[in-house]
Design brief:
heterodimer, A: mainly alpha, Amino acid/polyamine transporter I, two-stranded antiparallel sheet, globular, B: mainly alpha, 2 helices, disordered C terminus
């Protein structure tokens, strides 16, 4: 490294440390969002330049002379050597789901500091390392999937646990994302009509690309984007129309049922008709909006009003219950570390890499970019005044349904909320109410509308920007929902095919309908559970998703550690064993508290007991008795699922430890190294 | 000039990959397959 270059990196390190110092040490004053952006970019630059280079050169010993599966198994279909920027775009699109947008918003209830630090430290030392090492592991094993590698390298029990983990994540993630959309759209004809319009627009694009102008993807996408923008503007007209607004003014239950119906139809219909065009539409809007947000933040440089730490680090938070440790880390999930990414790193990406050294740029680099999206989401929540943030994100059970009462409660928590100013904000974004729109999406939309309108259009454009942001989030989420439902359908068909072969045929309509119905009932159940939950649903479902996701990350890191232990360089296992130890501590503590904590807002069993006592003491009106029975069942079911997750983590890790012990102590070492050499 | 051209080319490739990925992703059997090598069953 030249002297100038060294000097440059010292400057980056100083700028990063200085900005991080300002972010971490500011108390009781507003600070500019620029500090966050500089701190993040410098941390990523240093992590990428030094830590990922160290892993690539010393731990994984990437070597371009070793041919990748894309060359060795080239078939022009699945295994194709591809330009590294194309693979980067591909990999990033596949890992960038709604998780990094929603998680940081919810975790902002602890203040901006815990979330910011975890997103930055977690990604550099954990999340990006996981994505990178799993990608290299798969790359050297003919592009094998995570499940296959766990089965082969750890054992069949670990493999089965990973498979259950994947299905469980799909089901819970889709359920909770459905709930986020419901909370963003209930009682809002403008938002509902705009999001509903994206379905016929996608269908039109599908027909256009296949029947009217075959293959004209860009043309169809541009028409689609234009139509969606018309739908955003047209939504206001529907909202003001006496008859039409009634059609789209839906309550939570009706919306949940509509989304369940949509998921079923999307899973059954041919891919070209709905899924593919919706994905194109979503891709353009996703990348456009994320870039717009980045430019907006740099241009406007808004001040951060949320404090560094709130009193809710003690576990009494209204957005979700639980102390900053472990719940902040479970909640952030995807922006710092996500098990879901291990599926992508061992999915299509390893089959496309042209050179082994590209794995660093794609595996480590794309995760840094995902983390940057999480930082931007956190900033969007942090630029709001804390009172407004809590008014939007607290359930009605805590703050009531009246703004004056909510202002009183939230002021009691130590965050000023001016009822008149909140009413005015509600009107300026074109809503009738913003109170208790839990789930993160609406507060992100308010934050984005604030930033966008300051850059372009001013107050007059705020309502349009807000509904544009809601449409962007819903499109983002529905894309995950329909693709995830289809993946789940194929996984179920694959399992059912082992019982009776015809059920495994993906082209068979009855088998398709059965598997679609099973997967949709799975996540539909959780969605409905969230809708009827008196505490808002997000409180119990998001931590459940976080635990499931981190379970999968623990599985991936246990696998990566096993690969290191079995390699010629077992000492480098520290790189994956350290984040694994952290994840285990977090997941196990969170899981234990979610089941057994005596506070009913945290512990599922305490929640069930509370409802049992209410029933026994006759405190529940007869018409609510049935619903209360369901709530008791749901709380016990959630406790059972959490216990299952914890058992699965324990099984995988203990099984992996057995392999480590055997490899390091026994005569298996030489054989394992030989296997690696042959596979390589 | 060469740098600008290569940056633009990288951006074009990134976008191509980003949109192309969702095309692959649209067929989840390819994007998220747990049984990469069992062609005809899952992939």
């Amino acid at each position: 490294m030249s002297f100038v270059s060294r000097l440059g990196w010292v400057a980056v390190a100083l700028a990063g440390a200085g900005s991080l110092g300002v972010v971490a040490l500011s108390r009781g004053e507003t600070i500019s969002s620029t500090w966050f952006l500089v701190a993040a970019l410098c941390t990523y630059a240093l992590g990428y330049r030094f830590y990922s280079a160290f892993l690539a050169a010393r731990a994984l010993v990437l070597d371009d002379k070793r041919l990748t599966p894309a060359h060795r198994l080239a078939d022009g279909k699945d295994f194709v050597p591809t330009n590294r920027w194309v693979v980067f775009g591909h990999h990033f699109a596949a890992i960038a789901g709604p998780g990094p947008l929603v998680g940081p918003i919810l975790a902002a209830q602890f203040g901006y500091l815990p979330g910011t630090l975890y997103i930055l430290i977690g990604v550099v030392l954990g999340g990006a390392v996981q994505d990178f090492t799993i990608l290299v592991g798969s790359l050297r094993r003919n592009g094998k999937s995570l499940g296959q590698m766990v089965r082969e390298e750890i054992g069949p029990i670990g493999g089965a646990a990973a498979l259950i983990g994947v299905l469980a994540i799909m089901v819970i993630l889709i359920g909770v994302l459905g709930l986020v959309v419901v909370n963003a759209m209930f009682g809002s004809p403008w938002a509902t009509s705009t999001v509903a319009a994206t379905i016929p627009i996608a269908l039109f694009m599908g027909v256009y690309m296949v029947r009217i102008r075959p293959g004209q993807v860009l043309e169809a996408s541009l028409i689609g984007v234009a139509l969606v923008l018309v739908a955003v503007v047209g939504g206001r007209w529907i909202d003001e129309h006496e008859t039409l607004r009634v059609w789209f003014d839906l309550d939570k239950r009706a919306l949940a049922l509509s989304i369940i119906g949509y998921g079923f139809v999307a899973s059954v219909l041919p891919v070209w008709l709905l899924l593919a065009p919706r994905d194109y539409l979503s891709a353009f809007i996703k990348i456009g909006t994320v870039v717009l947000l980045a430019v907006g933040l740099v241009w406007v440089r808004p001040d951060v009003h949320l404090p560094a730490l709130t009193k809710f680090i003690d576990g009494t938070g209204p957005v979700f219950a639980g102390k900053v440790f472990p719940f902040c880390f479970i909640t952030i999930a995807c922006g710092a570390m996500s098990g879901f990414h291990a599926l992508i790193s061992s999915g299509t990406t390893p089959k496309l890499l042209d050179r082994e050294s590209d794995a660093r740029f794609i595996g480590y680099g794309a995760m840094l970019m995902e983390s940057f999206v999480a930082i931007m989401a956190l900033l969007s929540a942090s630029v709001m005044h804390p009172g407004v943030y809590f008014a939007i994100n607290s359930p009605a059970a805590l703050i009531g349904t009246d703004v004056a009462h909510a202002a009183e409660v939230i002021s009691g928590w130590g965050f000023a909320l001016d009822a008149a100013a909140f009413e005015s904000l509600t009107r300026s974004v074109g809503e009738t109410t913003l109170l208790s729109r839990t789930g993160g999406a609406p507060s992100l939309a308010v934050g984005m509308a604030e930033i966008f309108s300051r850059a372009l259009g001013g107050e007059a454009m705020k309502a349009l920007w807000y509904h544009f942001a809601i449409m962007f989030e819903a499109l983002f989420i529905l894309t995950t929902l329909d693709a995830g439902t289809r993946v789940g359908r194929f996984m179920i068909q694959d399992m059912l095919g082992n019982v009776w072969a015809p059920l495994g045929r993906t082209s068979s309509l009855p088998a398709n309908l059965l598997a679609s119905a099973l997967i949709v009932s799975g996540w539909g159940y959780f969605l409905y559970q969230g809708v009827i939950d008196p505490l808002g649903g997000i409180n119990s479902l998001w931590p459940l998703f976080g635990i499931a996701n981190q379970l999968l990350a623990a599985t991936a890191l246990a696998l990566a550690t096993t690969l290191f232990v079995k390699s010629a360089r077992p000492a480098f296992a520290f790189a994956t064993a350290t984040p694994l130890a952290w994840l285990l501590t977090v997941t196990m503590t969170a899981g234990w508290q979610k089941i057994f904590d005596p506070d009913r807002r945290i512990g599922f069993l305490a929640q069930a007991e509370h409802f049992v006592n209410q029933l026994a003491q006759g405190l529940v009106p007869p018409e609510k008795a049935l619903e209360t029975q369901t709530l008791i069942w749901n709380a016990r079911l959630d406790a059972g699922i959490t216990a299952l997750f914890m058992t699965l983590v324990a099984i995988v890790v203990l099984d992996a430890m057995r392999v480590w012990w055997k490899t390091l102590r026994g005569p298996g070492t030489a054989a394992a190294i030989a296997t690696e050499a042959v596979e390589a | 000039m060469t740098r600008l051209r290569s940056a633009l080319s990288a951006l074009r490739n990134f976008l191509h990959g980003f949109v192309g990925a969702t095309r692959l992703g649209a067929d989840p059997r390819r994007a998220l397959c747990e049984h990469g090598e069992k062609r005809g069953r899952c992939c």
